[in-house]
Design goal:
- The chain is an alpha+beta fold.
- Helix content is about 35%, strand content about 20%.
- It is built from eleven helices and twelve strands.
- An eight-stranded mixed β-sheet has the order 4-3-2-6-5-1-11-12.
- Helix 7 crosses helix 8.
- It starts with 11 loop residues before the first helix and ends in a 10-residue tail after the last strand.
């Protein structure tokens, strides 16, 4: 006697319902949680935890919905602003900028190669940028309206959302160290002014006098800014002012370590001729800096007031977490679609724990670079290497 196929005895309508219920009962795949520990390599973590960079290109008409690179473990930026001109930038100046970014990346790489944490890596990278007078952080920071230096920095760890920041410091050689000290040795997130300087000194951090931060280029930029303020028609277009604009933003770093933990750090001297006491987005968690393992690490640069008003870095994370966007569409949405509507320009470096990296910017230029898992260093300083997103 022939055997009937399973469920063949059901009427057609009931058979359809049974089939639907059977399919629905199959368990659906879910992202794997952070395994913790020190075991697998970054590549293994990414393979196990791979989350596609979702968000179809059509969701952003006319925009860029694809990441800049994959298999990235560390990225840095040296500020957003007016673009460097390939035709007028000397080979020596080009080399100085590329070497500055590459040196920071190699400093972070050494940390990661010996099994250090992503927090260690971003701190090491940002310290190198703070020590380089080409960039607007640490030595080489801009002057405020009183011809003084006030510096800001922050750091955030993606595994537990721990964060620390300092604002308006005047004597810490490396403000990013102060930010980490606040995160690890205090119950606070942000300490400002004299209290932050004292806290850093008591914690054993290197301190300096104000003249340490001084550079001729930043002094000249302040003089031209003062002249422009008094109505000079040519001061704003002077070589000193234009050079200042090319790196007017901040420095920052994002990284993912062998445990799959992400971190971000940002540091700045602020804006040339700013009012004393002005604080931008760099030391504000959720504006200039954010890190969360389940989404990304991000460091911002540009017009700080607008990044604060737009809660830029945490909004990118929220778009990924709650709207399901990938890092590129989420970062594009905030940097290119939202912030210019508030009147500001700038950019971000954004990195997921799977190594997906993007660096959108609405400003003409953004100095940045990244390091791949294979050890390749890429630096981008000219507009044709990293065109402004529109």
């Amino acid at each position: 006697m022939s055997r009937r196929a399973p469920l063949a005895w059901l009427p057609p309508a009931l058979l359809t319902v049974a089939t639907i219920l059977a399919i629905a009962a199959v368990p659906q795949s879910r992202p794997v949680d952070d395994p913790g520990g020190t075991g697998p390599s970054v590549r293994a973590v990414r393979a196990e935890q791979a989350r596609p960079d979702t968000g179809p290109p059509a969701a952003l008409p006319g925009g860029k919905a694809r990441p800049d690179a994959r298999d990235v473990v560390l990225a840095v930026h040296g500020g957003a602003g007016a673009a460097l001109n390939r035709e007028t930038t000397s080979p020596q100046r080009e080399k100085a900028y590329r070497d500055g970014l590459a040196t920071a990346l190699r400093a972070g790489q050494r940390v990661l190669d010996r099994g250090g944490s992503s927090v260690d890596a971003v701190e090491a990278a940002v310290k190198r940028l703070e020590d380089d007078p080409l960039f607007n952080a640490g030595k080489g920071a801009v002057f405020n309206a009183d011809a003084e230096h006030e510096l800001d920095a922050s750091v955030m760890r993606g595994s537990d959302l721990a964060a620390g920041a300092v604002a308006g410091v005047r004597s810490l050689r490396n403000p990013v160290e102060g930010a980490r000290l606040v995160m690890e040795k205090s119950k606070h997130v942000l300490i400002a002014g004299e209290g932050a300087d004292d806290f850093g000194a008591r914690g054993g951090l290197a301190t300096v006098t104000q003249d340490y931060y001084w550079t001729q280029a930043r002094w000249d930029a302040l003089i031209r800014a003062k002249e422009a303020e008094r109505g000079s028609k040519t001061a704003a277009r002077s070589p000193e002012a234009l050079a200042d604009l090319s790196s007017q933003g901040t420095v920052g770093a994002v990284a993912v370590d062998g445990r799959g933990d992400v971190a971000a750090a940002t540091s700045t001297g602020g804006m040339t001729n700013k009012l004393p006491g002005r604080i931008g987005d760099s030391p504000l968690i959720g504006a200039g800096t954010y890190a969360k393992n389940s989404t990304l690490a991000v460091s911002a640069t540009g017009a700080g007031e607008f990044f604060i008003r737009g809660a830029a870095s945490s909004t990118i994370s929220d778009l990924m977490e709650f709207k399901g966007l990938g890092v590129a569409p989420a970062a594009y949405d905030v940097v290119v679609e939202r912030l210019p509507g508030l009147g500001g320009q700038g950019g971000v470096i954004a990195l997921t724990r799977e190594g997906v990296f993007d660096a959108p910017h609405s400003s003409p230029g953004m100095l940045h670079g990244y390091l791949t898992e294979d050890g390749d260093v890429v630096t981008k300083i000219f507009p044709d290497e990293s065109p402004a997103n529109t």
